[in-house]
Design brief:
about 350 residues, Rossmann fold, alpha/beta, eight-stranded mixed sheet, about 20% strand
């Protein structure tokens, strides 16, 4: 009897020791970071009608399918997904922007969330990214990611891009760098990047200030931090209006007239961005129409269709006399995004110019 008791005690001691050891191991194991993926559609979720066909339908796959297609994702983080929209980014609009921004800000405020990844089509990714860069309140990483090949394509680039974007979102060094864009092993600042090729995998470039960093096989390496104001340092952070002011882009070319300007005014434009030739110029007829609009209280911003460089104030044109704002480094589509935010606050030309110098 006494021997049986000893055996029972020994077994109990072993079980207790194993339980304590298991609990200790669980306490010692670091908790995985939590990443929320907000899906909006795009090529990364696209499906071809038949294998090998060039055409495809954007946003065909839900976010859960995208996550399941990425081997090793569970090793990076605990990932949850939410479907914000299922559209090609050519159909991106203010309503989706507002919904997306508000959800990002809610996630920024949650202590259990480490980072946020947004799947997005490449066509207007730079605009969505810059919009979020202005209005997101918080320093947690926000990373936009897409692909140039649909999910059903041979050698689809989406899974690796999504893996790398998630790796960036959980990297402590990504905090406080503003909204980022990850494609093809490159990390870009949303403010700086632009799409430069219609179909190439290496389509995104940051022509003026360069890359934010690189990410190879899930290992990010960051370069210099951003200079312009962004996210928590932005005056717009945390304020997402119910609607955005109407801002149109007019495009300059040889022999251009005033018709685009007149159409924008007829449509109720509160602001107009000039995608000008060279250093933000246009024909005498278009400049005359834009100056007349400026004198009526429409804010006119001069940018360039060239793709890189700076449109400086009072260099190509006399902005003081004409009543214009110079976009500096911002291309037309990003100048439009900033102007929409600024017009909620002011229409004073010099005050608007100050925003373009700081953001």
């Amino acid at each position: 009897m006494r021997g049986a008791c000893r055996r029972i005690w020994a077994v109990g001691a072993v079980v207790t020791a194993l339980a304590i050891g298991s609990a200790f191991a669980q306490e010692q194991a670091p908790a995985k970071p939590n990443v929320v993926i907000l899906a909006t559609g795009g090529t990364i979720a696209g499906a071809q009608p038949k294998p090998g066909e060039i055409g495809y339908k954007a946003g065909a796959f839900p976010v859960d399918a995208l996550v399941q297609a990425v081997p090793g994702m569970k090793g990076l983080a605990t990932v949850t997904g939410e479907q914000i929209a299922s559209i090609g980014s050519q159909d991106m609009n203010d309503a989706v922007w507002i919904r997306l921004a508000r959800r990002v800000n809610e996630l920024q405020a949650r202590p259990d969330v480490t980072g946020i990844v947004i799947t997005h089509g490449t066509d207007t990714m730079e605009e969505t990214g810059y919009f979020l860069d202005l209005v997101v309140k918080g320093d947690k990483p926000v990373v936009l990611v897409g692909s140039m090949r649909p999910a059903t394509a041979i050698s689809a680039d989406g899974p690796m891009n999504l893996y790398n974007a998630t790796a960036v979102a959980v990297d402590p060094a990504a905090k406080g760098r503003g909204v980022l864009v990850v494609l093809n092993d490159d990390i870009h600042f949303a403010r700086e990047t632009t799409k430069t090729n219609t179909t190439a995998l290496q389509t995104f470039g940051s022509p003026n200030r360069g890359l934010a960093g690189i990410v190879l096989f899930g290992k990010p390496r960051f370069y210099s931090p951003p200079v312009p104001k962004h996210t928590s340092g932005s005056i717009f952070a945390g304020t997402v209006p119910d609607a955005l002011p109407k801002v149109f882009i007019v495009y300059a070319y040889a022999n251009v007239g005033r018709e685009q300007v007149e159409a924008a005014l007829a449509a109720g434009a509160q602001g107009i961005v000039l995608a000008g030739v060279g250093d933000g110029n246009a024909s005498a007829s278009m400049i005359e129409a834009l100056s007349a609009a400026a004198k009526k209280g429409v804010v006119v911003v001069r940018s360039s269709r060239v793709g890189s460089g700076t449109v400086a104030r009072n260099v190509e044109l006399d902005d003081d006399q004409l009543g214009f704002v110079a976009a500096l480094e911002l291309n037309p589509q990003k100048a439009r995004v900033l102007l929409q935010q600024v017009l909620v606050r002011t229409k004073d030309v010099l005050a608007v110019q100050k925003f373009f110098e700081e953001y």
